[in-house]
Amino acid sequence: MCLGIVGKVIKVTAADETAIIDVHGARREISIALLGQVKVGDYVLVHAGFAIEKIDLKEAEQMVKMWEEQLNDVTPGQVL
Amino acid sequence: MSPLDRFCDTELSRKLMGRVAALADEVAERLGRPAVFIEVCGTHTVAISRLGLRSLLAGRVELRSGPGCPVCVTDHQEIDMMVNLARLAGVTLGTFGDMLRVPGSRSSLERERAGGADVRIFYSPLDAVAFAEANPEREVVFLGIGFETTAPVVASTLTRARAKGVKNFSIFSAHKLIPPAIRAVLSDPVLKLDGLILPGHVSAITGRRAFDFIVKEYGLPSVISGFEPMDILIALHELLLQLLRGEARVVNKYTRVVREEGNLDARKRIAECFEEVDVPWRGLGVIPESGLSLRETFRDFDARFKLNIEPAPPTSHYPPGCACKEILRGKLLPPECRLFSNVCTPVHPVGPCMVSSEGACAAYYRFERFSPVGGGI
Amino acid sequence: MKENGRDIVLLAHGDGGALTHELINNLFLCHFESNILKTLTDAAVFSINEGRMAITTDSFVVDPPFFPGGDVGKLAVCGTVNDLAVSGARPVYLTASFILEEGLPLADLESIVQSMAGACGVAGVEIVTGDTKVVEKGHLDKIFINTTGVGYIFPGVDLGYHRIKPGDKVLVNGSLGQHGIAVLCKRYGFDFAGQVMSDCAPLNGIISLLLKEIRGIKIMRDLTRGGLATTAKEIASACGLDIWLDENCIPVDAGVKGAAEMLGLDPLYLANEGKFMVIVTPEEAEKAVAVMQGHELGRDARIIGEVKPGKGNVYLSTSLGGTKLLDLMAGSPLPRIC
C-alpha cells in the first residue's frame, strides 16, 4: 500500500533538512525531516519524497547470512 | 554485493521457495486444507503477483488480499467531496497519481480534469507546496491519502508550509489507520484465517508493538514482512512454522527497517497534526477511530474549513453484483466475483479493488487471470 | 532567429502572410535540406520506383518537449521512420506539420527543427513538404508535430502476424524503458546525473541490416507507448498464440530500474523510442542476435522469449520460477505512492 524505496544518501543539506538519494543511479532530493541524524552513505527508506526510516544494514546482513547458511548447508528435507 | 541485494537473490529465493513449499504441504496435510493467509498491504499484493507466488503455491497456501490500498478504501462520499473541491474556481487540486481514476458516486478526478478542473499529480506533497509558492494566485489543495506511512509525510509538509508562511496551501485529509481496519476484518465471524502478513512500511512508523492486539484478541500468527522475494518467503515460512508449532506471535521479519516502537518522530508528527475520527471505508463501512482529521490548531490548513466544503451526502451507492466488500475482507478471491474481467476491468473499473493498480482485483487481472496453456520457457 | 525584434511565435506566424514566409525561409529551409522542399509548391512532387510502398502517420505531443536524450522534434522524425522500418520499408520522404502555441520561444522552435534535421540526416530521409499553424496561447501545450512518412518495402520481405508459428523466438535490441523514464523524470523533477537518457533513435539502419542477413523474420514492432508488455500482448492477440517471456533475460538498465521503482512503475510497460521486438524462426534466432549486436543500436540485443501454442496470452516466467500474465497497459503510467 505504501511504496517504499531504498536509497543511498549521497548528500545532506542539514539546514533545510534535505538529502540527495541515489537509487541504482537515479537521483532525487528528498526530505529527512522525519529522521534524526542522517549521514552520507546511510541507506534510507523513502516514501512520497520523505525518508521515513534508516535501513539497518547490520540487521540485513545478519538475517540474509542466517538464511544463506540454512539454505546452503543443511541436508535436504530438514526443517528449521 | 550489498546485503540488501541479497534479499532479491534468485538462487537463494528458489531454495527458500522449496522449503516453503515443503512446509506448506506439511501444514496443508495437518489442516486437511490449504492454509489461508491474508496480507493487508497493496504493495505485498503486487509483490506476490510479480513473483508468480500464487501459481507456485496453488493447492498448498491460499494468499488473500485485505483492505491494504488507501485508494481502494476511500469512500464515495470522500471522492465526491474531492470532486467538489476540484470544481471550485481558483483551486488547484494536488494528488498522488493513484487517486486520479477512483470513481465517486458521479465523477472522478480524471473526469473533472478533462472537464477543465486543475488537477495535478505530485510525487511528494512538498512539490505541491513549491507549486503553491510559485502560483500565489491559486489555492493549492493537496489530498492527504494514505495510511500511517503517508500521514507523517503530510504532517511534516504542513509544518513546513506553516513555517514558510505559505498561505495558499491546504490539505484535504482522508488518511486512514491500519490497526482498526485489521480489527474490522478479523471481527467477521465467518472469516476463516490462519495468519496475517503485516504491512512493512506502516510498521516502520507504528512499530511492531502496535500489532500485538492481533495475538491477544484473535490468537493469529502474524509476521511483519518486507517486499523483496526473500522477505515474502521468509514471512510465509514463519507463518507456516508457527502454525505447525501451534504458536501465535507477532514476529518482525523486516528488522532492517521496523523497530519495536516504530519511528517515534514520525508518530509525534502524526499526533501533533491529526486526531482519530470515525470514518467510512469503501466496502467496509464506518470503522471507529480509523481516520485522521486535522486538529483544530491546523484549521488554517484544513481545506474542509478553509474552503467551506460541505460533507457530501453519505452514499449507499454500490454497484450491483460487485463483490469488493467480500474481497476487501478476504472472504472471496477476485475471480469469484461475477463482474470480474467481463464487466469490471482495469480500463473500466467498477469496484474499488479494480480501481487501483494495487487493488486485489487489478493485480489478479494483470498477473493471474488465466492459467497458462503451454509450459515455461 | 529574431524577427521584428521579437523572439516568440506570434499568431501572425501562422496566418500565411509575411511572418509565415519569414519563418519558412529563415528557419525551416535553413535546416531541412531537400530540393523537393525548396520548390515551396502546394504539394511535394517526386518520382517513384517499382514495387510496394508503405505509408504511415503519427502526431507527437510530449510534456516536456525537451527531455534528456532528445526532444519532440527528434521524436517526430524517429517515430515515423521507425514505424516504416519495422514494417520492412526503407523510409525515404517525410512531411512535417507543426501546430505551435502562441508565445513559444523561437529559439525553442529552432532547436526542435535542428534536431529534426539531425535525425533526418542519420536516418537518410528528406522532409519534402510541411505546414505551420499557430493557435492562441493556452489552446495547446507549446508544440505538436505531425509527420507522415513513405518508404519502399525491401524486395522479398514479407512480414505479418500470419507467419508467426509456435517455436519462433522473441528478440529485443536492448535495454527497455529508457524513453519513458527520461520523460517522466524530467516531468517530475528527478535528476539522473546524465544516467538515464531517452533511447530515441532511427532504427532503419539496424533493421535494414537485419532484413538483409536474416530471411526468417516473421514480424517486427517498435516498443513505443505501453512498452514491451503491451506490444507483446497485441501480437499474441493478433496471431492467437501465446508468448512466453523470461524475466531473467529481459534487459533493463539499473538507472531505469531505480527510477521506475521510485515512481512505482513497471519497466515492461514503459515507452521506448529506439527499441524494437523481432519474432524470428528458431533456426535463425542466434544469428539475428549476432547481426543486431554488430550494430550500435543493438549491442544489448538478446532472445527474451518464445512463441507457444495457446490462446493469445503473454506470460512472464518470474525469477522465482512462477508465472504471471502480462496485459495491455491500462491507463498511462502515473507516479504512485501505493
Which properties best describe this structure?
heterotrimer, A: 80 residues, alpha+beta, 1 helix, 5 strands, 39% strand, B: 377 residues, alpha/beta, five-stranded parallel β-sheet, 12 strands, disordered C terminus
Q: Number of helical runs of chain B?
A: 17
Helical proportion of chain B, percent range: 40-55%
Name the average pLDDT of chain B.
90
Count the beta strands of chain A: 5
Structure classification of chain A? alpha+beta
Mean pLDDT of chain A: 88
Largest interface: A-B, 35 and 56 residues
Cross-sheet strand order for the largest sheet of chain A: 3-2-1-4-5
Radius of gyration of chain A: 17 Å
- How many beta-strand runs of chain B? 12
Measured by DSSP, the beta-strand proportion of chain A falls in 35-45%
Q: Tell me the Rg of chain B in angstroms.
A: 21 Å
Quote the distance from N terminus to C terminus of chain B.
28 Å
Strand order of the biggest β-sheet of chain B? 2-1-8-9-10
Main sheet of chain A?
Answer: 5 strands, antiparallel
Q: What is the global morphology of chain A?
A: elongated
Offer a quick outline of the entry:
The complex is a heterotrimer of chains A (80), B (377) and C (338). Chain B is α/β, with parallel strands linked by helices and 377 residues long.
How would you characterize this protein structure?
- The complex is a heterotrimer of chains A (80), B (377) and C (338).
- Chain A is α+β, with helices and mostly antiparallel strands and 80 residues long.
- In chain A, 21% of the residues lie in helices and 39% in strands.
- Chain A has a 5-stranded antiparallel β-sheet with strand order 3-2-1-4-5, with no helix packed on it.
- Chain B has a 5-stranded parallel β-sheet with strand order 2-1-8-9-10. A 4-stranded parallel β-sheet of chain B has the order 4-3-5-6, sandwiched between helices.
- The radius of gyration of chain B is 21 Å and the shape is globular.
- In chain B, helix 2 runs parallel beside helix 12, helix 3 runs parallel beside helix 17 and helix 8 packs across helix 13.
- With 377 residues, chain B is an alpha/beta fold.
- Chain B contains 17 helices and 12 strands.
- Chain C is α+β, with helices and mostly antiparallel strands.
- In chain C, 31% of the residues lie in helices and 24% in strands.
- In chain C, strands 8-10-7-11-9-12-13 form a 7-stranded mixed β-sheet, sandwiched between helices. A 4-stranded mixed β-sheet of chain C has the order 1-6-4-5.
- The longest helix of chain C is centred in the middle third of the chain and has 18 residues.
- The mean pLDDT of chain C is 93.
- Chains A and B meet through strand 4, strand 5 and helix 1 of A and helix 1, helix 2, helix 7, helix 8 and helix 10 of B.
